[in-house]
Specification:
By secondary structure, the chain is α/β, with parallel strands linked by helices. 48% of the residues lie in helices and 20% in strands. The chain has 11 helices and 9 strands.
Length: 300
């Protein structure tokens, strides 16, 4: 009996130790994300407006097709300083934009931008995305966005399920995922053999010193992930299939901010024309999905 008690006690001690390590990793990851998005301003960074235009090229026509006149309730999750929030709030003249981010500094900056731009149909909320969604009412949004966020959000699968719940029937979901191909190139460029194997064989994991968690997908992964929740895929597009920001593997081919306006326009035309054909080659994979009925989702 004493031996059993010792084993149980030792097992409990090990489990507590493992739980402590996991909690510490999660905390380090969260702090790292907050530092990164505070330092890197998506509105003022030299290459980001170029990629914003790619997102808007695909997003706005879908919004206009479904909600003509801009009468839509938007939710921008992981909004940062408002790179997508502002142009879509301007489009939604009869609607409302809610931007959510868990980093105080970027929310404060977004509120300052809103005031200086004179955009009044927008509100920024400081909150963890998952926590915010769980407290939201069912069918309270028409359009949800989560761009360049899922790959640093460990609970992204649960978040996607919550998004389905809060969207109105026929609502739209725009979400981008980091592509597996991008992370493979990134690992190869760094000569990171462990990273190469990790990206090839898995879809998520810790890189570097273990504190940074990332996920990555193929277009087929994205299709299955969203369809299993109940979404109907309207389109999958590669964002930045032949270019990158500073530090990206494809930036050695083309970095938008280092091109002339004419060269940038030619690159934009090329990348948009190839976005569907080479979706898996993008820096990100943008999915456009429509909410089907809950009855259909429950059959999956």
């Amino acid at each position: 009996m004493k031996r059993v008690q010792k084993v149980v006690s030792k097992t409990a001690q090990i489990l507590r130790h493992v739980a402590g390590i996991l909690e510490e990793k999660a905390s380090l990851h969260e702090m790292g994300v907050q530092r990164a998005i505070t330092v890197y301003n998506m509105i003022t960074a030299p290459d980001e407006d170029y990629y914003l235009q790619q997102y808007l090229h695909w997003i706005i026509p879908e919004c206009e097709r479904r909600y003509s006149g801009g009468a839509a309730r938007f939710l921008d999750m992981g909004c940062g300083q408002g790179r997508l929030s502002f142009p879509l709030a301007k489009w939604a003249v009869k609607g409302k934009m809610i931007g959510v981010d868990f980093t105080s500094a970027v929310i404060q900056k977004a509120r300052q931008y809103a005031q200086s731009l004179g955009i009044h149909n927008i509100e920024f909320v400081e909150s963890d995305v998952h926590t915010y969604l769980k407290s939201a009412r069912r069918h309270c949004y028409d359009i949800a966005l989560m761009t360049e966020v899922s790959f640093i959000l460990p609970s992204y699968k649960e978040v996607i399920a919550e998004v389905y719940r809060v969207l109105s029937p026929g609502g739209l979901f725009f979400i981008s995922f980091r592509s597996q191909y991008f992370n493979l190139l990134y690992s190869v460029r760094r000569r990171d053999r462990q990273g190469m194997r990790l990206v090839r064989d898995q879809r998520e994991g810790h890189w570097g010193d273990g504190s940074a968690w990332f996920s990555w997908q193929t277009s087929e992964d994205v299709r299955h992930l969203l369809s299993n929740v109940g979404f109907q895929i309207q389109g999958l597009y590669g964002v930045g299939v032949a270019s990158g920001i500073e530090g990206d593997p494809l930036s050695v081919i083309a970095q938008p901010s280092k091109l002339t306006p004419q060269e940038q326009a030619h690159l934009m035309d090329l990348e948009l024309s190839l976005a569907k054909q080479y979706v898996d080659c993008g820096r990100y994979i943008l999915a456009i999905a429509e909410k089907t009925s809950e009855k259909n989702a429950s059959r999956r």
